[in-house]
Amino acid sequence: MRKNIIISMLAAVSLSTAQAQGPAKYDPSVQPGEMQYFTPAGGKQFVGDCIPFFHDGTFYLYWLLDEGHHGSLNGLGGHQWCVSTTRDLKTWTHHPIAIGIDEDWEKSVCTGSVVSDGDKFYAFYATRLLKDGNNVAEQLSYAVSSDALSFTKQQPNPFYTSAPGYSTRNFRDPKATIDSEGTFHLFVSSEKNEAPINEGKGCLVHMTSTDLKTWQVGEPVLSGTIHVPECPDYFEWNGWHYLVYGQAGDTYYLKSRSPYGPWEYPESQALLEQWVNVAKTAAFTDGRRIVAGWVPSRNGNTDSGGELFGGCVVLREALQLDNGDLATRLPEEVMPETDSPLSLSLTPTDGATVSSPGSISVDARGDICGAHATGVPYNCVVTLDVIPEGNYEEFGMFLRSEDKGINSYKLSFNSDNHTVRLHDSSISAVTGLDKPMKLTIVMKGDIIDVCVDNRRCIVNRLPEKKGSQLWFFARNGKLRFENIKVCPITGDASKR
User: Fold this and answer.
1) Are residues 315 and 449 in the same domain?
2) pTM of this structure
């Protein structure tokens, strides 16, 4: 499984001395201005876990600076907090490292959260260290700032070592909130040393303090997960309370009408995209909510390569449905700038009809057929409407294709099992695939990002195929592709 590759890679690099042994250097002045699909300049630095935060009109995106795919400091991570800010999601400013490694015992500044109280900002995080020789431990630290950009570590550091009955190896990623009475709450990713069912050791430890000195450990806010529930997020939105957490990189959420449960499992896990790791959210202007995660690198930079820790930023906008479930879409502000739509020449197969330059009617009952366009740029945004006319087995597109749809990336939709697939990744419980829908497809570099009817997204990192054809197809069904537009991304040099 792809997630196991992360684990095996971490084990491998932990024994290596060939990787960088000190904390990474970072120059904010040379970084690209766009944040969607952002990777630090330099070629060997990447983005790890993201920590979004919103305050007084400014959106802060803290992110783990990764060097060598978790390879720094003998594979213990060597991560540090970087921060990038914006007020409109379009124009971003990159700042110097917010929380760095400045003592030898600090082997990684792990994921956490930021909370404001009066004129102060508190960053809670875990520090990975070696204890009693070669035993890895994770302990809680916090730092304080007056501007949310540069933080001063507080003493004692770490301020909390371990909670009785819980793992010392896995004790990280604190999510901090402050209630109306001024009490600090931390949800800490960990696992029980003992559990009634061994597969259910994962939990979020609930800790509280009124003075940041003495901490009380209560009942876990979540328990019984298969893996350590990483990078938790917790927020209230229009009367619903949400608990978000990662399982082996994938992101799940629960909902409740009460602050700490009981939790309900939603009908749709809209934050679960196989190639978006540990997504977290923050408020934004006008009652909106923005989701930030990261897309891993591919091992060997091949289409079949498994995940490596560290990659690029990916942003979503969360939407709240009437039943409290969440949906996601591409924020309009982070869409790449494009040139005018190309004049498409669509060539149909038998069973398909091109009724206008941007419209295809497909009658594939008992067959597969469609139409294709040539001369499609490598970097472009494709938009279209899909209108099913009755039942169908499958429809979709072959992206970056060669003749007859070969050597391509298949994007497919199936209304029977409510599934959308993009090459080797998929999303499930996608409703409405039997109804008219709008599709947006961003192809930029090795990232292909798809939004389905402004309610579900799927992304993948696919570096190899470079064909200039775009195929539309249907299998065993009848439907129409309409209002097809292909817009080159501004500045794209590939005019294939």
Assistant:
1) no
2) 0.94
